[in-house]
Amino acid sequence: MTKKASVEKKSKRTCYSVVIVPQYEGCAHQFKVSRLAIYSVITVFILFVSGFAYAIAQNTRLKNTVAQYDGMGLDQVVRLQATQLDAANEAISNSYTELTALKKYVDYLGTLDAKVRKTLGVGGNSVSLASILKSTATPTLSVSRGLGEAATQLLTSTAVVQKEAEAREKNLIILQDAASRYNNMLAETPSIWPLYGLITSTYGWRSNPFGGSGGEYHDGVDIAAPYGTAIRATADGRVELSGWNGSYGISVTLYHRNGIETLYGHMSRTAVLAGQTVEKGQVIGYEGSTGRATGAHCHYQIIINGNAVSPMTYLE
Questions:
Q1: Which of 8, 153, 200, 202 minimizes the number of CB atoms within 10 Å of its CB?
Q2: Using the 8-state DSSP alphabet, how is residue 290 labeled?
Q3: Residue 141: its pLDDT value, please?
Q4: Class in CATH terms, 198-313
């Protein structure tokens, strides 16, 4: 009895009873309908309504497409589409030409970037075309807009990129020019030792090296090294004098820039000629003891606008 009651109770929870009663006479009829059957009917109804709505939408879209070509023959439609395709192909061809030129232009900018880095003496890697293309998102062309519109957009984008590249090129050229001028200025500024040795006399007042109670003003520094040691130009410049120069003996005078000159005295012999252009570090003569000297050494002097200054300010 207990088991039967449980089955009946479960049946009540999962089924519904439908009673049909005649209006005037006859017996009433009772049917049992499960929940699953009711849910199935509702689901089928929803699917039917959705499918019907989709069919209506597709039909409307088809009518709009037909209306677009209403009154046109098949030949006219084909010619119109052919014209559109020709225009799209021409635009895409132009875009390809522009893109090829842009790739070469970007390669040129990479070369210019490397030159600027070299001029500045800066390390680091230049940006390559491959890395630019890799980091640039590929544009998605919408078919619904048409090939012609998509190709026009591609041309516009290419023009924008080319304009930005031209602006970058101008900046790089300006930067390279400024860096080149700055490096030239550094190269033409005395900054290295003409030779390495012992400083036997500094710039300024000193006692007379030839004896006596009086002193004298020394307008350079004396650097002693083994006889015949190579003497090098301390900056880029032009040889103004190469030969005998009074108390300085055999000497070389270089002009660098903006009134800056250097003098190298008491040489045993020179290695350059007047009017010759020399570079920083180039050998211009050899140490000796010519002129007013007590021994082998190089008298090194820096002159700015005709006035001697302390070389120690410029020596590295």
A1: 8
A2: -
A3: 45
A4: mainly beta
279 vs 107: CA distance, rounded Å = 33
Residues 66, 70, 72, 73: is their CA dihedral positive or negative? positive
pLDDT digits (tens, 9 = 90+) for 97-145: 766 776 677 677 777 777 776 766 655 555 554 555 555 544 444 444 4
DSSP reduced 3-state for 305: coil
CA distances from 125 to 145, 175, 195, 246 (A): 41, 17, 37, 54
Long-range contacts of 160-166 (CB under 8 A, 24+ apart): 161/102, 162/98, 162/102, 162/105, 165/102, 165/105, 165/106, 165/109
User: What pLDDT score does 172 carry?
Assistant: 77
Contact 293, 246 (CB under 8 A): no
- Residue 246 confidence (pLDDT) above 90: yes
pLDDT per residue as tens digits for the range 255-281: 999 999 999 999 999 999 999 999 999
Q: What ranges in 121-146 are assigned the alpha helix state H?
A: 129-135
CA dihedral for 53, 55, 58, 60, sign (positive or negative): negative
What SS3 state is found at 179?
Answer: helix
Report how far apart, in Å, the C-alpha atoms of 4 and of each of 33, 34, 50, 121 are: 20, 19, 44, 98
Q: Are strands 215-218 and 204-207 parallel, antiparallel or unpaired?
A: antiparallel
Three-state DSSP class for 137?
coil
CB-side neighbour CA atoms (13 Å) of 187: 17
Instruction: Name every residue whose Cβ is closer than 8 Å to that of residue 218 and which is 6 or more positions away in sequence.
Output: 201, 202, 203, 204, 205, 206
Cβ contact 16:33 at 8 Å: yes
**If pLDDT is split at 50, 70 and 90, which confidence band does 39 have?**
low
- The pLDDT-based confidence of 23 (bands split at 50, 70, 90) is low
pLDDT, tens digit, 9 for 90 and up, residues 158-173: 677 777 777 777 777 8
